[in-house]
Amino acid sequence: MSVKIYNTLSRKKEPFVPIEEGKVSMYVCGPTVYNYIHIGNARPPIVFDTVRRYLEYRGYDVKYVMNFTDVDDKIINAAKEMGEDVYAVAEKFIQAYKEDTSALGVKEGALHPRVTESMEEIIDFVQGLIDKGYAYVSEGDVYFRTRSFDGYGKLSHQSIDELRSGARIRVGEQKDDPLDFALWKNAKPGEISWDTPWGKGRPGWHIECSAMVKKHLGDTIDIHAGGTDLTFPHHENEIAQSEALNGKSFANYWMHNGHINIDNEKMSKSLGNFILAHDLIKKHDPQVLRFFMLSVHYRNPINFTDELLESAKSGLARIKNAYDNLQHRKAASTNQDSSVKEVMETIQELIARFEEEMDDDFNTANAVSVLFDLAREANVYLQQEQTSEQVIEAFTKAFEDLGGVLGVTFAAETELLDDEIEDLLAQRVKARKNRDFQEADRIRDLLKEKNIILEDTSQGTRWKRG
């Protein structure tokens, strides 16, 4: 069975046929780096990292590109508030993004082009659209003539007339048609800017990705991906400007992940339910956060609650415990087990089921269920009096291979050193002093998992190994 991808462009699942056999070109829209990412921003890197992992598991050589938008109105405003320049603010949050996503198991090796490092290509791209009559200069701004591109609306499945009814010209915009969108913005006094044939300024949001895709992956790519909120207008505009300039299909498969709700409500700062991934990682095992994200199909919305996160924690622990049980039994195993053939067939059936689920539009929710079944079968097998080293190695490899696709890592527990325990105790004392009892309880639970028993006394907290 070949991999099938739900293509937003066609609104149906299609067999995946790459442009070049055995290779995949994949572009994912990355963050605008003006703050720490929130939990919704964390879903695309987790989802599409998993897509990349599975394609590599299937033998493809994946060239994976995720950009950083490092110049934008939000970054400029943040720089003013922080009293720093745009480059410093962007660099700070690029590094924060890398740290957070690395903790969430996102693989290294992706190419991360930045807008400020792609300016020559962006300017050339805009000039090419002007030369072809698809764009025009208006008082230092450059706009794309939306009606000049016949296919506009094909990704979001909207007609040009439907889009026209909701389009407006904002104050300060001097464009010919409300549907036209900015490719380049005229410089405002004191703002960061670049020289162009039509004057100083900086790029519009949509043109950045088109230029970086062309530079790093070519005119036509296999997969373009991002959050569902980017379908319109961002990805729609990318298609228009790229296909207008290049005269070719821009991307063969469009993938979009669903949004995240917090306790059944849309996440927003005004509702006070805005959760930064940076903060969650401090309170929860980031592998649990990733596992939680993958417990729902990527196209469906996720409802984030403490109860569901706790359920994901228990589920992941069950899988890891089964793996640990295998390693504990391995040394005592022989090759005298009569059930080897039957159990090996069961393992292969589970691997085939996992692949079948992932082949079907990367259905991680069902793939996770297969991991639970693998854990159950491993635990049943370990109840036998005689176990085979061959079978245990086969179970181990299945856990590592299939878990690796989902970003689940298995590692032997390491014992905490005395100074590490003392440091955690100091953090707990501080948390209790600040009345952050959730954090204090988290540290107690962490130490308990490491077999460290705490005793709170009038003279302070004492500890001992259990």
Automatic annotation (TrEMBL):
Main localization is cytoplasm
Which controlled-vocabulary keywords does the entry list?
Aminoacyl-tRNA synthetase, ATP-binding, Coiled coil, Cytoplasm, Ligase, Metal-binding, Nucleotide-binding, Phosphoprotein, Protein biosynthesis, Zinc
Pfam families referenced in this protein's UniProt entry, alphabetically: CysS_C, DALR_2, tRNA-synt_1e
Task: Say which domain of life the source belongs to.
Answer: Bacteria
Instruction: Kindly state which reaction or reactions the protein catalyses.
Output: tRNA(Cys) + L-cysteine + ATP = L-cysteinyl-tRNA(Cys) + AMP + diphosphate
Gene Ontology CC annotations of this record: cytosol
Cofactor(s) the protein requires to work: Zn(2+)
Domain named Cysteinyl-tRNA synthetase class Ia DALR is located at: 353-417
Gene3D superfamilies, per the entry: Cysteine-tRNA ligase, C-terminal anti-codon recognition domain, HUPs
Q: Which residues carry this modification: Phosphoserine?
A: 270
Q: How does it assemble?
A: Monomer.
Q: What is the protein named?
A: Cysteine--tRNA ligase
